[in-house]
Amino acid sequence: MQFHKAGGPEVLQYHEVPVPEIGPGEVLVRVHAAGINPPDWYLREGLKVMPAEMRPALEFPLIPGTDMSGVVKAVARDVQGFAVGDEVFGMLRFPGFDGRTYAEYVAAPASDLAHKPAGIDHVQAAGAPMAVLTAWQYLIELGHDVPSPFTGQVHQPVPITPGMTVLVNGAAGGVGHFAVQLAKSKGAHVIAVASGRHEQFLRKLGADEFIDYTSTQAADVVSGVDLVIDTVGGPDSSRFLTALKRGGTMLPVFFAQYDPEETASLGITVSNIQVRSNGPQLAEIARLLHEGRLHVGVDSTYPLPEAGSAHMRAAQGHLQGKIVLTMIS
């Protein structure tokens, strides 16, 4: 799937193109499934979400996508740890827009890959990388020392210990449902905020409390929280500040602005990251997925030629897990 100009889902077109050649440090992967993430539609729309001065020049045609799961078909001479026939998954070349995973074949940096867990299928594996790495790098281990482009500071994950209270807003979505599970795995008391139809899904993932935001404002009924993970962001994100205890931490996953004087007066730290590709972290996560200690929610699947319809589903919001493209066999 590629597009020749920025626009709506209708600009995505299905084409036959040559199988990519691999370079040093790369493997060729026959893609079985590709996960859909917000940067995919940001790119399709021409990166309008970014300030004009920060937008890179785009050279068309472009193949979107960062997340995929598939089987290795060729390996560069300098690559170790992967062989033809291995099942792998990964988030490719992010931050950046050269992942090109909406395709049947992709040239993938070996450093961005991990072996796919045997306990899950390609659809589940393809749905995991960006969302789970975002939650992991926020909560468990950043894995690099690159300052956030949004704050200029290097994020320091807050150690989650038994007895802490963690609130996850937008808990049913990609990042949210992994954040719920990771916080719970560390012994936290987890409050999940989402619409009512997601309650059973989130309770099965370990949420201790559930708040239906369509009928109850979390900030009206919750206080003394140690950590808020807000996967929704936007101008209303600051309403969660009153739910935090003094000394608490706010982690906005999407764009959100906070008044430094207000957060300082409340003793609250605001921190965020830009997720980065990391094969070794995915290998750690793969063990949790294989052992059933971490689960991938799949909202829906679409055949690759119907990527436009998949983007339309994403625009509707209220996802329960991830949207995944499946390749033609």
From TrEMBL:
InterPro entries: ADH-like_N, ER, GroES-like_sf, Lipid_raft_assoc_Zn_ADH, NAD(P)-bd_dom_sf, Quin_OxRdtase/zeta-crystal_CS
Coiled coil regions in record: none
Keywords: Oxidoreductase
Transmembrane annotation, as ranges: none
Pfam (any one): ADH_N
Listed SMART domains: PKS_ER
Domain spans labelled Enoyl reductase (ER): 7-325
GO molecular function: oxidoreductase activity; zinc ion binding
Enzyme Commission no: 1.-.-.-
PANTHER family: PROTEIN AST1-RELATED (PTHR43482:SF1)
Protein name: NADP-dependent oxidoreductase
Organism for this UniProt entry: Streptomyces sp. R33
